[in-house]
Amino acid sequence: MTTADLDGRGTRLNPANRYERLHLEASDADGEAAPPAADAPTELYRDASRTILAENDSPDVGFRFSVNPYRGCEHGCVYCYARPSHEYLGFSAGLDFERRLLVKMDAPALLRAALAAPRWQPQVVALSGNTDCYQPVERQLRLTRACLEVFAEHHNPVSVITKSALVARDVDVLAAMAADGLAHVSVTVTTLDAELARRLEPRAATPERRLQAIRTLAAAGVPVNAMVAPVIPGLTDHEIPAILDRVAEAGARSAAWVLLRLATPLDQLFTDWLERHYPDRVVRVLGRLRSCRGGALNDPRFGRRMRGEGQYAAQIRDLFTLAARRRGLDRALPPLRADGFRLPPRAGDQLRLF
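The structure assignment produced for this chain is given below.
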């Protein structure tokens, strides 16, 4: 389904869900496909999941467990690798992903129960690993903050990744945890070009606000990693040195990068986005990406999907390595501790002592 340009949305497409046998399209009186209104509102749905810890065994990801308070993401980043996961919920990876959000209202309570379970082995948990835990709805619902407070109560280490400046709101909790070696934050900076960011990540924080969030966190003693992700060949790769300069100045201690991944149907969404916003760069961007992906737009193989291969991928890697080394960002953040884990007292426990 193709729509007219939608204000504040990352894509105008809402392709059919690959896992559903039926696909419905609204039509007008003449039988033509009817696009959603230009001001199509964001819809929230209650997620009735009874578990909160998602487990992964990918060798490309540095954590085993993650917590995702939200499914779908209003930031609307057209390239988002999480878009296809919305198809598992019966939605489209296109416009549905950024305007039909599932909210886990019970996330804090489920997390508290998971950490109290006898089988839980204290270890680093990622917030959030899939969709952004600090997307706009978090400003009102505060589920991510409540989850952070649960981690703090249990002294269980947590690693946050976001592209939202809202993370700075929770600097009090994060700083207290960081002082005990229990927290660090990764802030994604895709580009320094405000206009490109507005088109690429329409409802995410501007580049300058993300840099300010890094400053706030770093000044409070929270170790910050800067994620240059995704690196888009022919569109953002030339910015790598400048991005690393700015994040280092803001106080980031380390940096990492990930190459653009275009699994189905991201290839369709991103190509359409390029054709609308940068038609003169379509051939260059897709051609360079294919040169990094063995002639395709995606390579799902472990060990290659994050960085690509070939001469152009090697040039990106070398550019990043040199720029990171020059700014002292070629090091890992301090390891997080899990040896202080504890179960907070439950209501009534003190009374049972007498």
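Interim note for the steering committee: The longest helix spans residues 311-326. The two ends are 67 Å apart (CA to CA).
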